[in-house]
Amino acid sequence: MYLPIILYQETLSYLSSRRLIFSLLLIFIPAACGIWFSSMMYHHPSIIARMTAGWIREVTPKTCIMVYLDVAVFPIALTAIINASDFIAGERTRGMLQLLASKPLGRWEIVVGKYLSFISIFLVLILLKLSIFNIGLKFLGIGPVENRVFLSYLVVLVLTGIVYTSIATLSSTLTRTTLAAILAGFLLLIAWYIFDWMILYLPVSTSDILEKFSLSYYIENIIGYISKGEAPLLLRGGVSSKGSLGILLKSMGVVGCLTLIPVAVSTVIVQRKDIAQ
Amino acid sequence: MKMETVIRIKNIVKLYPGDIKAISNLTLNVQKGIFGLLGPNGSGKTTLIQILTGVIRPTSGSVEILGYDLKKQLSFVKRDIGYLPEYPGMYEDMTGMSFLHYMGRLSGLSKKEARNTAKRSLKEADLEKWEDAKIRKYSAGMKQRIAFAQSLLNDPQIVFLDEPTKGLDPMERQKVLSRIEKIGEQGKTVFLSSHILVEIERVADHIAIISTGRVLFQGTSEEVKREDGLSSLYGKVLIGEGF
Question: How distant is the alpha carbon of residue A110 from its chain centre?
């Protein structure tokens, strides 16, 4: 079993590389901006009312975190895409894939080892990011947000991060270069973002059907249940329902599939397919 | 004297997408010692080595390495072989020591074994002073030496070297060839692919010439000498093939 060796080495490499600095910047710059923006919102509530076309009238810690999250999801997804895109395509570009394939390890262990290593680091970064923001709100005298809401938004970032990591893992397996993999992941991210905003402006009958293709719809269902409807997503119009256990399970199933299927497909491809030169 | 056959290749075919035939019904037995595989560019040398090291799979045919069936017992085969690809990959952010330690661990060595072997390998590769330097600071020759060193970490019975002197200056070439001879003297098998005739002629006990995925000649170094040397034989064989 070579998985722990890969897991350890990948974590060590990540923590001692420039990738960590890049990820920290991508994660903490929005956190700092979020704190500053929340402070501005708190002191000038009319700004946010205008910006959100009246959805948010009263500025509370919850609304601050909701607006912040709307901005923060994007860099989280982007960090996931940039890092995971290198998993296989990067090894191929470096010429390491051939060498690794000649070693007695199972090729699937390369994919799973890299994936798990990144996810572990990523979860810590996300927790830090949201915690820093929450502490920032406290210092500004705005917050902090209640635990249930904090946990819900943490779940949003974690699920978004994990899903995009999985998708980028697959695109890294299917493409020949890291850049191509990043581009594919980035295009999907943008498409999903546009799709989410587009749904908000469609008639209810149409949006009810189309929202089933939106990642944030399922994430919203999950956090709606956890927060008992107290943690809406601005991306979904800022309205949250409490949800039911059935909807929660179904949504978790969909998010689970979006997480596991790309990784499973990647491991099968890497395990079975010839390693191209 | 009866020579021990360590690799038996029987009727292997490798088709790439678009039905491009890289290996065409190739049958070859490799005896213990230094085996030189010659052939022009695109003759299928790298494809053959990639098949033998488990990097790619043959479309059909069978391969037996050290008595193990390559298809069914690949993990056993991989424990007893080393591989230096034509374009060896590196983790350039790693130090020489940590790279060899990691490769050693992935070759099945324990932590302690990997550390000791990495240290010894760096010494043998004349890179002792550079063990804590990042690989990106190494010269091309040093990189090749460390890549070569990684292929020997698990003390393999067979080492596959795909054009190991490519891009090296004459001094580095001599070092690599001396290293290959040393491995041969230790009773191990070296499967050496190259298109540099003098190198193969210098080190190989057995030689095969392949072209378009087929074996055109196979014999011992003595047999080659009887044919007025390798360059004469290589010319004759390939001219016969329309080169």
Answer: 22
The pLDDT value recorded for residue A164 is 96
- Selection from B126, B125, B133, B137 nearest residue B97 by Cα: B133
Measure the CA–CA gap between A22 and A7, rounded to whole angstroms: 21
Reading the block at residue A92, the tokens are 């191929």
Question: ipTM strictly over 0.85?
Answer: yes
Q: What is the mean pLDDT of residues B192-209?
A: 91
Give, as one character, the DSSP assignment of residue B94.
S
What would the mean pLDDT of A87-100 be, rounded to a whole number? 92
Neighbour tally for A18: CB within 10 Å = 8
CB B43 within 8 A of CB B230: no
Q: Residue A5: its chain B contacts at CB < 8 A? A: 102, 105-106
Give the integer Cα–Cα distance in Å for A81 and A78: 5
Name the residue in chain A with its Cα closest to that of B78. Answer: A104
d(CA B207, CA B211): 13
Structure-token pair, residue A74: 């994007």
Region B234-238 average pLDDT = 79
DSSP class per residue in A228-275: TT----GGGTS------HHHHHHHHHHHHHHHHHHHHHHHHHHHHS--
The residue extents of the domains of chain A are 3-272
- Give yes or no for residue B145 having a pLDDT over 70: yes
Do β-strands B5-16 and B20-31 pair in parallel, antiparallel, or remain unpaired?
Answer: antiparallel
Which two structure tokens, joined as six digits, stand for B119?
A: 């240290």
Mutate to test the interface with A, among B105, B157, B159 (most CBs of A within 10 A): B105
In chain B, what residues touch A105 (CB-CB under 8 Å)? 106
> Measured between alpha carbons, how far is A10 from B98 in angstroms, rounded to an integer?
12
Region A166-179: mean pLDDT is 95
Which pair of tokens denotes residue A195?
Answer: 């799709």
Residue B121 and residue B96: Cα distance in Å, rounded? 10
A275 vs B contacts (CB less than 8 Å): 50, 55-56
Reported pTM: 0.90
Name which of A88, A101, A83, A89 is nearest A164 in CA terms: A83
pLDDT of residue A277: 54
Q: How far apart are CA A38 and CA A137, in angstroms?
A: 8
Exposed, middle or buried: residue B25 (CB in 10 Å: 0-12, 13-18, 19+)?
middle
**What is the H or E stretch that residue B220 is in?**
strand B214-220
Is the pLDDT score of A146 beyond 90? no
Closest B-chain CA to A91: B89
Taking alpha carbons only, the member of A34, A76, A99, A101 closest to residue A193 is A76
The rounded distance, in Å, linking the Cα atoms of B17 and A181 is: 22
Q: How many CB atoms lie within 10 A of CB A99?
A: 25
Could you count the other beta carbons within 10 Å of the beta carbon of residue A113?
A: 22
| Nearest CB to B88 within list A2, A99, A275 | A99
Closest Cα in chain A, distance from residue B18 (Å): 15
